């Protein structure tokens, strides 16, 4: 018998009751495990990166940012990568939102997933001791069509190739030439090697105090934290609208 995703209780003030949710006698509502974790600002990227889970990660990131722009967001990663365009979009997003985004590698972060892992908040990019990380140059399946279409795809791949190297170079503080050479021969590296390279900041050995694992703190359910900074996205700043 397969094991399903369990339902867990969550405070009524954290999530409004919706159709299909059941309340117990303690005035709590029951939701599936992932929805409960979303309330705690915990997001998962599991499996191959495709349109569906990429859009889920990005939409959750935007939603949680609009709810609170101060509290940390946690992105747990266990993926061998996937479509580079989605990875570039997620990397751009988590590096542009105002709140710190913790990226945590649970097992493997390869290819595009490595690119996302490295894009987390400096000092808050984390991996478990047995994690493996791999970065490589962008890959493409040769397209079939007229010469102009193939030429356009080739130009786009070159653009993405340069973007990936630029970002890795900025994050790791290594030269363009070093990154270019290292991604030619992709090899899985350990968490400690990834830290030495500059892809992550902390390896979660027992007793590590450099990074704290998120807890089910009731205070994290509320959106009462003071946020006096500019609103995100900046073009939606309500203070500007009130002046007009």
From TrEMBL:
Biological process according to GO: protein quality control for misfolded or incompletely synthesized proteins
Keywords, in A-Z order: Chloroplast, Hydrolase, Plastid, Protease, Serine protease
Known catalytic reactions: Hydrolysis of proteins to small peptides in the presence of ATP and magnesium. alpha-casein is the usual test substrate. In the absence of ATP, only oligopeptides shorter than five residues are hydrolyzed (such as succinyl-Leu-Tyr-|-NHMec, and Leu-Tyr-Leu-|-Tyr-Trp, in which cleavage of the -Tyr-|-Leu- and -Tyr-|-Trp bonds also occurs)
Gene3D superfamilies: 2-enoyl-CoA Hydratase, Chain A, domain 1
MF (Gene Ontology): ATP-dependent peptidase activity; ATPase binding; serine-type endopeptidase activity
Gene Ontology cellular-component terms listed: endopeptidase Clp complex; plastid
InterPro entries documented for this protein: ClpP (IPR001907), ClpP/crotonase-like_dom_sf (IPR029045), ClpP/TepA (IPR023562), ClpP_His_AS (IPR033135)
UniProt-recorded name of the protein: ATP-dependent Clp protease proteolytic subunit
Species assigned in the record: Najas flexilis
Taxon lineage: Eukaryota, Viridiplantae, Streptophyta, Embryophyta, Tracheophyta
